[in-house]
């Protein structure tokens, strides 16, 4: 029989090496205290009695099987982890895509509502224009449709004090005229030739004046509160 090294059977673990060493030690008549692993490292199959060779080979093959099983378990774990990461990434991407789609849909709906409101406001303004006279409610409705919603109250506060929403109001002493009491009233002709009879023209001029001088109707109202004029 050729001298086949015990290490050639891949006795890699401490348990397998100890088993082989013990068998070798007993076969050689060595004391039990001899280091089993060192003895196993130097021994060969030829040094082991024939009856013990099968045990050595079995121990070696068992260790190889254990090592193969451990490697297979590690590979399976790695594969499972990779699959889990891939699944998590796909789930995250799906959620992101769904969120993006929902956000786009919501934005489109808001845009459509804004366009519909704008068209409605344009029709409402058109319905109010060209009349021979206007009520306070109609004049206020025009103003609401001609400026940002958060500026209307400030604009209204000024008009309340200046003219009480009377677009034909005239200050007998100064000659100031209209909703915003332009002085002289003819200044409002820059917004339209019908400045004397059309509240929309007066609102347009007053809004431009407040924006240019104070930044906004609310800026003008803050100044008015401090000075009782603007």
Automatic annotation (TrEMBL):
Alphabetical list of InterPro entries matching this protein: Lysozyme-like_dom_sf, Transglycosylase_SLT_dom_1
Transmembrane domains' residue ranges: none
Region (Disordered): 88-120
Source organism superkingdom: Bacteria
Pfam families cross-referenced by the UniProt entry: SLT
Parts forming coiled coils: none
UniProt KW keywords: Signal
Signal sequence extent: 1-22
Name of protein: Transglycosylase domain-containing protein
């Amino acid at each position: 029989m050729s001298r086949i090294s015990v290490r050639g059977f891949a006795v890699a673990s401490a348990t397998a090496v100890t088993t082989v060493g013990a068998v070798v030690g007993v076969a050689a008549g060595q004391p039990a205290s001899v280091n089993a692993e060192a003895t196993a490292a130097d021994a060969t199959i030829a040094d082991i009695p024939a009856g013990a060779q099968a045990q050595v080979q079995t121990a070696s093959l068992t260790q190889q099987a254990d090592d193969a099983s451990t490697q297979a378990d590690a590979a399976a774990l790695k594969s499972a982890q990779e699959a889990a990461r891939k699944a998590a990434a796909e789930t995250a991407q799906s959620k992101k895509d769904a969120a993006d789609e929902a956000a786009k849909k919501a934005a489109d709906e808001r845009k459509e509502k804004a366009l519909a409101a704008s068209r409605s406001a344009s029709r409402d303004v058109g319905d109010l224009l060209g009349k021979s006279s206007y009520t306070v409610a109609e004049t206020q409705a025009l103003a609401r449709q001609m400026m940002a919603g958060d500026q209307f109250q400030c604009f209204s506060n000024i008009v309340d004090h200046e003219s009480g929403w009377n677009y034909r109001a005239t200050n007998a002493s100064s000659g100031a005229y209209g909703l915003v009491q332009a002085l002289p009233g003819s200044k409002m002709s820059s917004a339209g030739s019908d400045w004397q009879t059309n509240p929309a023209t007066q609102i347009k001029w007053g809004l431009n004046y407040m924006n240019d001088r104070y930044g906004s109707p609310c800026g003008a109202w803050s100044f008015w509160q401090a000075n009782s004029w603007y």
